[in-house]
Fold each of these.
Amino acid sequence: MPETEIKRRFAARIAQVKPSMTMAVVDKAASLRSQGRTIVDLGVGEPDYETPDHIKQAAVEALNQGHTRYTKNVGIDELREAVVSKLERVNNLKYNPSQVIVSGGGKHSLFNAMMTVLDAFDEIIIFAPYWVTFPEMAKLTGANPVIIETKEENNFEPDLDEVADKITDKTKAILINSPSNPTGSVFSSDTIQGLVELARKNGAYLISDECYDQIAYDKQPVSPAVYEEDPEFVITVQTMSKSYAMTGWRIGYAAAANDIIKNMAKIQSQSTSHPNSIAQHAAVDALNGDQTFLKEMVIEYRKRRDYVLERLVSIPNVSFSKPDGAFYVFPKVNDYFGLSDGKQTVNNALDLANFLLEEEGVALVPGDGFGADDHIRISYSTSMKELEEGLDRFETALQKLK
């Protein structure tokens, strides 16, 4: 009897999802380093600071006290209470602990939220430039991301009339990110309130990614949930990663109406069960403890931001908007497209990023992955010495293109 040939295939959803462009840059930079090249990394999206010692010590104490077992699916009570206190103290939001769920990082919180509110063929409005994961995460739920482009001259804030025009009977959610990765834009209170009203009027959820909520400079971010009398349809997502230099600890959280949180918990119970027990105890100390570290870090990031802007002003044919938060600048560089150094021609942002990396050894992230092909992302979450060297290399490389 002849053997039957078995054909295996992957789930169709895999073909719809693009690999992360930021990770592609990281991988290529690592490859060049392994060849002995010195690479200046201005593409990294995490603080260059160590987690503060008092937070590390809280983790050690949690280990010594035996907090190594399963916790509640939604997170330990102490951390949910600490989140509630932080939301009121910093964001002027009032929740109770039952309206909070702790997850394995901000990305996990966002995924739980999308899995809770989006069905196949629903639409979710996402503003470009966007964090690379937003549309891919939506696709994994079966929903269709509807991309609305924003403009540099408007500081990348969405036009409310355009948003209203894009809303259909399939619109299930609007996703915002302020302060923004990759632009550093902080939406005005008028824009935030307008988006809340559009969501309310059209029966849509509003998912607010506030990953960088405490890293802001000239303009303080507004949480959309301040415009709800009681938690209803806004889902507030925050994380310990950026503000407390805890990227590897993987603790994020969401606050929303009770029914939303209960359903997010149902999904989490069948995936990760709960976030890391030790990291949860450390996060309690981070939120309730001394905040001096955070204030000092923001002061330093402001200095670095100002330095980057000062350098970009002197580089021909590069435009940018002033970021009010996060730790990124997102300059427009399309005037260099079509130019060549005599060996290779730069046709787009990806070509330019590869040219910068290969020619001068400076790693930046092309705007293609963020839905803005004319731009590149510069991260200033690195030392001033690295910034100076990296921008020197950036400028030198651009001078070679004719």
Amino acid sequence: MLYIAADKYGYRTILFVEKFLKRKKLDYRNLGVTSDKEDLALQVFIPKIAKHIRRNKSNKAILSCGTGIGVDIGANRFSGIRSCLATNHQIARWSRVYDDCNCLCLAGWNTTEEKITKILSAWLSAKYDGNKARLQMFKAFDNWH
């Protein structure tokens, strides 16, 4: 399952995400705002998203705020969450292949539907390469306090 969420500054981007996911017939659940008039603090929805990802390793998340940095910082505070702020399709792909990222963060400001579509296509189609040394690194990261 894909979980998506945004604050009011990421709402437009999340609309692009929803349109893409519907077109691809992918299941998702929106835990963020549902209009640009609504606001929801990052600290309200990020823990909910993290809980769903940690509960089932096949779950993934796509988050957005104005810069994308706030949701990325917040998501990476949780052990087991490997979040990436992808600014282009190549970074999105590499975040899955090399770092097994389970949370994609997107900027809500200064972006286009075309750019978001390319990033989503790359991230959702990429698979982790299985590197065991990096898996050990991720486990070490999860033990940091």
Amino acid sequence: MDLPRPTRFFLTQGSSEGYTPLNSFDGALLAAKVGDVNLVKLSSILPPGCKRSLQPWPLDSGSLTPVAYASITSHLPGEQIAAAVAVGVPKNPEEPGVIMEYSARGTAKSAERIARQMAKEAFAMRGRELKAVMSSSVEHHVQNIGTAFAAVVLGF
């Protein structure tokens, strides 16, 4: 069975505190504007010709939504956590791009730098020319139980 190939994507991020790790994760999804859809986690390939949308489009509640994401949850009050995604776009629009996800204890700036480097390395490994790297990140200072979440949402 062939599923339709996504033609567009947007970057998003969010963070949250919660009563439990799942509540914290749910709050981060809500902050990222993807809390009322069913995320279908993807591996790291951007379909050929997929175009970036600078604004999120409306997502139908309960829909199956393809997404590549990074997340991290911590129970350590005072800890700083971060999540980032990077999209590598090829020079040749007929070739696929890559999506890289990274999360760790630390700053958003550091996580984003690493995710961007991962995208560059993925292109080098494939022997493809890189046109651009787009990225997004978020950090969170944990108070009780916190989550940082960054994603690339794909659509049709």
